[in-house]
Amino acid sequence: MKLHELPKDKSKKKRKRLARGHGCGTVKTAGRGSNGQKSRSGGNIPAYFQGGGLMMFRRVPKLGGFKNINRKEYAPVNLEALNMFDYGTEVTHEKLVEAGIIRKNDKLIKVLARGELEKKLKIQAHAWSAAAEKKAKEAGSELIKLD
Question: H helices within 60-129, ranges in order?
């Protein structure tokens, strides 16, 4: 028997009504066990309760500071890493991934000034440092801003 072959009236099972006399099979304790806080009405324990000990959220150190939800996370690319490309190459996101300089899921690229650039390249990036821009211009490279 498959789900779509079930008869209409049997397709939804009714919930068991607890504590409705001897015929229902759950007379005395209504399926709640014998005694204790959880057997009584209104006896619910919060999820963070840990038996009366110091709670987890009070034991862990506090997270300090402000976390900006709109923060832009850049993948750093140093000038020395770009020397592996041939003279006159247009350095794009895809070529940086192929070369293993950045990961595939890195969205934004920022060029930093570590090392020297020895070749004239066309570098596509979202951002760059002032020192990296100066070094790239001295090498004859062109920085193209991506949005």
Answer: 93-99
- 118-139 pLDDT, tens digit per residue, is 999 999 999 999 999 999 999 9
> What is the residue extent of each domain of the chain?
74-145
pLDDT tens track for 14-50: 888 888 888 888 888 888 888 888 888 888 888 888 8
Q: What secondary structure letter does DSSP report for 84? A: G
CA distance 111 to 95: 15
Cα dihedral across residues 84, 143, 96, 86: positive or negative: negative
CATH number of 74-145: 3.100.10.10
Which residues lie closer than 8 Å to 117 by C-beta, 6 or more apart?
79, 80, 82, 83, 135, 136, 139, 141
**Taking the model in full, what pTM does it have?**
0.55
